[in-house]
From TrEMBL:
Residues 3-121 form the Response regulatory domain. The gene is divK. It comes from the Bacteria. One of its GO terms (biological process) is phosphorelay signal transduction system. It comes from Desulfotignum phosphitoxidans DSM 13687. This is Polar-differentiation response regulator DivK.
Length: 125
């Protein structure tokens, strides 16, 4: 089964994102920090269709985790959407320049969230 990995340190957000993405029919994997997320991605990479990643997390932030994923040939092609409360002008552009496939600001709009996830999965196939 194809899988989506959600890396988010806020338990309520993690639960919400899991419920929403599970409605798309994918198995959902979760991690509460970038280090655990990278480890899961390396283990599950052939079946991962998408990673949703928070930016500010303990242990390892989202940008560092993204760089680790992009530097590994096995996980480099997995699309990664930044989930962030950074909603200032220029943040979207900066995160996309870092190598994220997409950007979703928190708090999320459920419909826009689903639309972004579906679009990213469709484009990456």
């Amino acid at each position: 089964m194809k899988k989506i990995l959600i890396i988010e340190d806020n338990e309520k957000n993690l639960k919400l994102f899991s419920i929403i993405t599970r409605s798309l029919g994918y198995e959902i994997l979760t991690a509460e920090n970038g280090a655990k997320g990278v480890a899961i991605a390396k283990k599950e990479f052939p079946r991962l269709v998408l990673i949703l990643m928070d930016i500010q997390m303990p242990v390892m932030d989202g940008i560092t985790a993204l760089n680790m994923l992009k530097s590994d040939q096995r996980t480099a092609g997995i699309p990664v959407i930044a989930l962030t409360s950074f909603a200032m002008a220029g943040d979207r552009k900066r995160l996309l320049a870092e190598g994220f496939t997409g950007y979703i600001s928190k708090p999320i709009d459920k419909n826009q969230f689903l639309k972004s996830v579906k679009k990213t999965i469709k484009v990456s196939k």
